Amino acid sequence: MSDQPKSWHPTFEPRNFPRRAETDAQWACVLRDQREHAEAKGIYLGLFQLLAAHRGFVRTCPLRGCRRLGRCTGRRAEDDWSFPFRPFIPPCVPLDADLVEELRAEIRAETDRMVAGLEARGDG
Hints:
Layout: H1 24-55, H2 64-69, H3 97-121
């Protein structure tokens, strides 16, 4: 059992790069960067899932689990970039460029609001 607390967002696997001539310190930076990037992708997918549920996409989701829970837990393949941002878009959200951009704008606005609130409290 892992000592890590369960996060509110899904996880992505860090990409594996072949090690070349990096020093141990450089390689540690590469690995840390890949872990942070994978976490950022998971957070972005988690925000998309929360918004998909808020917008009601889960009511018509092709995944029974999402419909039954009334919240989005679905995800697309991590390595399928055939549509912009596809790994971050839950299966219940249609792959429509205008809709996806509208949802991305809503996520950006909400995260900006959250950051402004943290900064106003002195936490940012």
